[in-house]
Amino acid sequence: xxxxxxxxxxxxxxxxxxxxxxxxxxxxxxxxxxxxxxxxxxxxxxxxxxxxxxxxxxxxxxxxxxxxxxxxxxxxxxxxxxxxxxxxxxxxxxxxxxxxxxxxxxxxxxxxxxxxxxxxxxxxxxxxxxxxxxxxxxxxxxxxxxxxxxxxxxxxxxxxxxxxxxxxxxxxxxxxxxxxxxxxxxxxxxxxxxxxxxxxxxxxxxxxxxxxxxxxxxxxxxxxxxxxxxxxxxxxxxxxxxxxxxxxxxxxxxxxxxxxxxxxxxxxxxxxxxxxxxxxxxxxxxxxxxxxxxxxxxxxxxxxxxxxxxxxxxxxxxxxxxxxxxxxxxxxxxxxxxxxxxxxxxxxxxxxxxxxxxxxxxx
Length: 363
Fold this sequence. Notes:
The protein is α/β, with parallel strands linked by helices. 18% of the residues lie in helices and 18% in strands. It holds the Pfam family Glyco_hydro_114.
């Protein structure tokens, strides 16, 4: 999700033309979600969370049979968080804080290749009982909106499934909204009614996110797309910074690897250089509109894809040739996997070669 806030001073900007950040309305991803929002929250008040993961994520009794091999007794959290340089990232192997290498099920994690085409559909569940259009190998879908049978049908069509959830915000419409303690809820997200930043340093929040990742694994997701990782770049109401963001990403990465799932970095360009070896891919919104230059090139160098989303005027269906050219401007984004989307991230998608598709969804 793209939230309007000031760009961090550590984020490099292009010297050429800069387009103003685009305000994206709250309806963008989930127009269907508000109907059950209040009821879902009330119904789940008082539910206790049964999953507790320590920062080190040592194997526990309730871990799946295929738990990861962690090449270290315990990972550390250095004063200045850092990760291995992109040039020494091992394909399919996660390197988290402290230099810990993680193998899921003693085998490398799924590692998509740079330039692999993809589609992202978040506003409605996809209808995978029909042939998926476009016929691609990677789809990003909402974890809560799609059930295990839907994901199974996608697998039968040769599709790797990335499952979206928000890792940095509380959303009133989610079924586990009642599990967040009040003290872990921060400021509202600008332009997103019903969402508040969360304290990503809180054990309560991390337990909830660990359970979300477990649910993604239970549904059969191949990877997770944790949104709102860039809260440290704005005023969340909590003392978060780049170091805490990297520590949180390290926690999420270890948790995903426990279930043999890959994970991506969503936006948060100011930590991209240090996060390259912690994840298997990056997803960036409005890369060109925000003129974020070459800050994600480490991923391409490391053999990891950057999935790029642009929201030009006229989408869906009326994107001018000039707007398409601007959104697809090849300027230090060679090798990126671009999609042109409308703000609600529905089934409509356009690619830089001008082809247009409408992925079947349940509306």
